[in-house]
Design a protein that fits this description.
- By secondary structure, this protein is mostly helical.
- Helix content is about 45%, strand content about 10%.
- The chain has a three-stranded parallel sheet, sandwiched between helices.
- Helix 5 crosses helix 6 and helix 7 (about 170-190) crosses helix 9.
- It is elongated and about 65 Å long.
């Protein structure tokens, strides 16, 4: 899975594991990197060993570009290979061997597919390369509806205005708009009723208005 940051690549991987009722092993690429010789490759072998024991299993590598960058471009270590070169070789070995092992699926996500070694993208390794774009209008509307549900939102809010205003936002940005709007409401409320007693008495007045949402869009956009 590749595409801009915040488009839900990690969430999609978790959804795959949930829907398939498989065990799920999630690993952030940078977590595998170690300054000790051989430790990074050992960690990678251990992940695949656990997956074999826990099959059916989904292994998900987040930020995989950190361990699978194009070979030959790193700083050389022992044996003339960089740390990422060794990691890449180890991953290729494990994935080639996985063809003989049933019920294990390897997923990965990156924001920089151009940094991935092409050897990893050929058939038999990562067979499917899926681009995850920023959400379109319909998707942004659905994301907003999910995040405003159960929140103190004014009844007269035109959600379409916010959908239009968030053109080009990632899914994470759209979700952040609602959270930021709630923070703005809280800030206004505290300023209006500085004492706890008054604040409690008028708690029902704290609602997110269209102004809060539009201000939140500006803040998130930066």
């Amino acid at each position: 899975l590749h595409g801009p940051s915040g488009t839900g690549k990690t969430m999609l991987a978790k959804a795959v594991a949930t829907e398939s009722e498989a065990n799920f092993i999630s690993v952030k690429g940078p977590e595998l990197l170690s300054k000790w010789v051989g430790e990074s490759e050992k960690g990678l072998r251990e992940i695949f060993r656990k997956a074999r024991q826990a099959s059916p299993c989904v292994i998900f590598f987040d930020e995989i570009d950190s361990i699978t960058s194009i070979r030959g471009g790193g700083i050389e270590g022992l044996g003339g290979l960089s740390g990422t070169d060794k990691m890449m070789s180890q991953l290729l070995t494990e994935m080639d061997g996985i063809q003989e092992i049933h019920d294990i699926v390897v997923l990965a996500a990156t924001n920089r597919i151009d940094m991935i070694d092409t050897a990893l993208l050929r058939p038999g390794r990562f067979d499917k390369i899926v681009y995850i774009p920023n959400p379109d209008k319909v998707t942004r509307e659905r994301i907003l509806q999910i995040h405003v549900k159960g929140k103190p939102i004014s009844n007269d809010i035109d959600i379409n205005r916010i959908v239009e205003a968030t053109e080009g936002f990632s899914g994470a940005d759209v979700a952040s708009v609602v959270n930021t709007a709630l923070s703005l409401v809280l800030h206004d409320y505290i300023q209006r009723y500085p004492s706890a007693e008054e604040a409690f008495k008028h708690a029902s007045e704290a609602h997110v208005t269209i102004r809060h949402l539009e201000d939140a869009v500006k803040k998130v956009r930066g």
